[in-house]
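Newbie here. two chains, one complex. Structure please?
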Amino acid sequence: MNLKARRTYASSAILWLYSSFTLFVLGYMTYQAFRSKKELLSNTFGWPEVFNFANFGKLFAEAGFHRYFFNSVLILAATLLIVIALSSMVAYGIGRFRFRFKNGLLVYFLIGLMFPVQLGIVPIFLLIRDMGLMNSQWGVVIVLASGLSMPVFLLTTFFEKLPADLYESAKIDGAGEWTTFAKVMFPLASPVVFSICIIMSVQIWNQFFVPLIMLQSEAKKTIPLMIMKFTNNLMYNIDLAMAGSVMATVPILILFFIFSGRVLEGVASGGIKG
Amino acid sequence: MTWFRKRPFLWFILPGFALYSLFTVYPIFSAFQISLNRWDGIGPKTFVGFANYAELFGNKELFGQLTGAFRHSVVLFLLNTLAVLPGQLYMAYLLYSRIKGHRFFQAMIFSPQFIATPVIVFMGTLIFDGNIGVFNKLLEAVGLGEWTRPWIGLPELGIYIVWMMVAWSGIGVGMIFFLGAMKMIPVEMMEAALLEGASYWRRFFSIVLPQIKTTVLNMLILTYIFAMTMFDFSFILGGVSGGINRSVDVMALFFYRIAFGDNSAVGGTMNVNAMGMGTTIACVMFSVIFVVAVVQVVLTYRRTEDGA
């Protein structure tokens, strides 16, 4: 079948222009990260006299980039684990079994889509404070992991569509409810789990609001908060801002470009019904 | 115990139900309850009924900040709906028709989604800053030197600069959603249109657009919720005060300023009522979102019923 456009030079040109702009911004920032602070401020567009890894060395040695990185990874990994475990269980419970209030329960999990975390942050802040989890990564993890609406919805749709025979045959083999879920049902859902991981990872990794409110000490902060600390005072920290931005951006984008086909498929499947 | 054993699904649902109820649903109701009190978050609460709401709408300074922030949020929503959404549809359709290089384009256009907001704002500075910005350099290079401005610092441009960053970082998500929806359109339908000689854009308006209507409407409501709760771009660019003359202030930032931030501009009374007034603003934001969301859901529901 040929659904192709007739030769659309203008459209191509627009897409090329737009993509080149994005490439240019990324490349320009990376290039500037190799220059010295003095040159960045006084000779921004001139030919570089210093061009080395000094800013990156400073980022690790003086600013402790690895610490922020570790905090971000900890929050991402723990939140993803909790979200996947809890949402797949909830979705399996709703999707697999028949009981009263089943649809009501699904709607209850869906209304969370209309409650962005910003609106409830004062009570959340008070809860976390009373639990003694203020200024701890686990406070952030709990708050972020409670946003179960999207994963529950996607997984429930998946489990509802699974043929009942699968469940019956596992039962005949003598497997208990948990074994059936963990050994048979959950592995089947792995494509859906994968797309949930992709969508949630982007949100959690770049999460700004919740860590800003929950984490006060430098030792607990995440990468986005680190970058903001540098960009708040560019006269002093423009070298660290450049190197930090590159370290926070370029490795992830390289990973994304390698796997972009699968990643974008995952994102798309999350949006079709949502 | 037997009651539980007969209902094995409860064990699956309970842990998630508890966490979700406590940290996602309960805070909304708790926020409303707190908003009826005068409270600084530590000392004793005093029940004041709807006095906080009366003060929010009656106090000239507070109401001025509220309307200013709300206006900016509406500007963001309108610009996203009138400029970004059509752009997303346009690009998704080009990718759908497999324009040459479509894999590269979709990855490139989506990629800013992976960049943290502080980095995006920093990139904006690198381009639009008065001294080190590339844009001014470009203007000089093409002989428009007298047009150079400290773009980031101009209050009258504030919210539009915010919007440009928001648009650049977020345009890919909607595009990918639309592309996914377009791929679900039955191939026979497109083939039939092709055989009847419908032109490229004719097929877009007569087949593609009606077929992905639900996705577009969903995207519209997500855009609206985003505009009403967007916080990080404005906070990073303008700080807690919302920039010069509050030029980048938005609803969520106004809320943050009252509940957690520096209240000196409002006068002495606010500090002792930070949590009370903060939750009041959150509840106003919630109702602003809720009303529109319900209207949208009802409209979508009615339309799908008509169609069936």
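Moderator note: The CA atoms of residues 76 and 201 of chain A lie 7 Å apart. The mean pLDDT of chain A is 86. Thread marked as resolved.
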